[in-house]
Design goal:
mainly beta; seven-stranded antiparallel sheet; three-stranded antiparallel sheet; 3 helices; 12 strands; disordered N terminus
């Protein structure tokens, strides 16, 4: 105990017993191939993160966007979301400069749109139907299941990615449809069990 009668304690988490989950080199971290293969067993929804042009300082005309399956709800109070983006992304700096984004939750029929926004060096918005979101003006893509309009709250470094948190300013959902899912390197739909 200290002078102010406060105690501190350290929480120690027990180590799980060793389990045999197949051949693995337990002497170091997994290879990138093994990491992707194992984590590919976790199905995720697919979003397209969009932002309006950042103005005169923007390096390219028009809005910016990229496909992102690393997206999640973060907090209810205040309402916040998070997404992860590769530090090597050429689109992320444009979105960061704008200070805002819209997460467009793709529907099962939008696999082609997902692939288009995953490419670099192309006009990703060519032929894409969208309207400015209500609060930030970020592109809300037609046919998406939901739209989450945000301001960027914080950016953290996490290995070879940035962890971006956003404060939700407005959101809406289509109310009908099934999500586009990413599983083991492939896109597909959802059917209830």
């Amino acid at each position: 105990m200290g002078e102010n009668n406060m105690t501190t304690s350290t929480v120690r988490f027990p180590q799980p017993p060793a389990a045999d989950h197949g051949p693995a080199d337990l002497t170091g971290p997994p290879s990138q191939h093994e990491f992707r293969d194992v984590l590919g067993h976790f199905a995720s929804g697919v979003t397209v993160i969009t932002a309006p042009a950042a103005g005169e300082d923007d390096t390219a005309p028009g809005p910016a966007g990229f496909t992102c399956q690393s997206f999640a709800a973060l907090s209810l109070d205040p309402p916040m979301v998070a997404f992860l983006v590769a530090r090597t992304s050429t689109t992320w700096p444009r979105i960061a400069r704008s200070g805002v984004f819209c997460a467009n939750v793709l529907s099962a029929g939008q696999a082609a749109l997902c692939r288009a926004f995953a490419r670099s060096g192309t006009d990703k918005f060519a032929g894409v139907d969208w309207r400015p979101s209500r609060v930030t003006g970020s592109p809300s893509l037609s046919g998406a299941l939901a739209w989450i309009d945000c301001t960027i709250d914080a950016v953290h470094t996490g290995g070879d990615h940035f962890i971006v948190t956003g404060r939700v300013r407005h959101l809406s959902a289509a109310g009908q449809g099934s999500p586009l899912l990413f599983y083991r390197g492939s896109l597909g739909g959802f059917s209830a069990a």
